[in-house]
Amino acid sequence: MTEYSIKPADFYQQLVNTALAGGVLSQGDGMRILTDPDVELLPLMQAAFQVRKRYFGRGVRVHILNNVQNGLCPEDCNYCAQAVDSEAAIQKYKIKSDAEIMAGAKAAHESGAYRYCIVLSGREPDKKRVDEMSALVKRIKAEYPVEVCLSAGFIDESAAVQLKEAGLNRYNHNLNTAESHYGEICSTHSYRQRLATLEAAKGAGLEVCSGMIIGMGESPDEIWTVANKLRELNARSIPVNFYVHVPGAKLGERHQLTPEYCLRALALFRFSNPDAEIRAAGGREVNLRSLESLALYPANSLFSEGYLNVGGHGADKTMQMISDAGFSVESIEEVD
Ligand code: SF4
């Protein structure tokens, strides 16, 4: 067992001080958060809360998902129900019409949504799709005062610049796991390609939204590596997903996660990315179980009403949990 020179009682405060001073969470401290049994959960959550509170108070940003294109993906990400070789029984459909996407933007605005996020499955948009998305973003921005985020797979610098010029605010593309583990989850593209997309988005002046799926066989060290990489990319939004097997998806069942480990991982992301929106994203209900509301101490954002191909709590239950835990909804973000 590793001997630590700093006692747990001092370690919590050191984590807070470093994060609030803008310091980098060291690899050793990241590992300790995840693996030291003497680091106890409640003081760790309270320490993460001090950092969260500085930047986000007790506010919670709630995201609601509704995919504009589902399934039919040529990639083989083995955790994904939409992958080319997945046998998962999911609903598959091609992209919705412009009218439907515009109606989604209108509904999002009318429901008080702060941000409207457009999500397409697939490897990458071709030039025609980038042109269409740019035109849609321009129309949405002209008609409704909402922030717009797009998730459409790989983009290069020229697509990123075009989307930025059309008024896009943010681009989502998840790293999903560390470079050292990437070969275990996908063979049709590489971690480097994912990173290049994020660098293109950042270079064009778009905000970066990018996260990870925990529980796919990665080591604790690899979780820290991803969190640190997202800090380098200045990711403003970090969805932290917890792996859930969808029957038919190639990766299969994994039994790596406990509720406590998930919470420790959320705390790690908060300490490494103090002022980023940290989202307890896909799989929170299944993996956090009775400790779900503790996620609000490190995280300031949640999904409601389920995920692309996995069910979750409805809005009522999510809102109830937020208020029961003493937090309040800060904004709703519609993901269409
Ligand atoms: S994660 Fe994205 S790129 Fe990979 S198979 Fe699923 S939809 Fe396709």
Largest beta sheet: what is the strand line-up?
A: 5-4-3-2-10-1-9-8-7-6
N-to-C order of helices and strands: HHHEHEHEHEHHEEHEHEHEHE
Small-molecule components bound:
iron/sulfur cluster
**CATH architectural grouping:** Alpha-Beta Barrel
Q: Can you give the helix content as a percent range?
A: 40-55%
Q: What percent of residues are in strands?
A: 5-15%
Number of domains: 1
* Overall pLDDT metric: 91
Q: What fold name goes in the CATH topology slot? A: TIM Barrel
* Distance N to C terminus: 47 Å
Number of strands: 10
Low-confidence segments, ≥5 residues, pLDDT <50?
none
**CATH C-level class:** Alpha Beta
Rg, rounded, reads: 19 Å
**How is the biggest beta sheet arranged?**
10 strands, parallel
Assign the CATH superfamily: Aldolase class I
- Shape, please? globular
Structural class: alpha/beta
Number of helices: 12
Molecular structure report:
The radius of gyration is 19 Å and the shape is globular. The chain has helices spanning about 10-20, 25-35, 40-55, 100-110, 125-145, 155-165, 180, 190-205, 220-230, 260-270, 285-290, 315-325; strands at about 60-65, 115-120, 145-150, 170, 205-210, 210-215, 235-240, 275-280, 300-305, 330-335. It has one domain: Aldolase class I (TIM Barrel, Alpha-Beta Barrel). Helix 1 (about 10-20) runs parallel beside helix 3 (about 40-55), helix 5 (about 125-145) packs parallel to helix 6 (about 155-165) and helix 9 (about 220-230) runs parallel beside helix 10 (about 260-270). It is built from twelve helices and ten strands. It is of the alpha/beta class. Helix 5 (about 125-145) links the parallel strand 2 and strand 3 (about 145-150). The longest helix is centred in the middle third of the chain and has 17 residues, at about 125-145. A ten-stranded parallel sheet has the order 5-4-3-2-10-1-9-8-7-6.
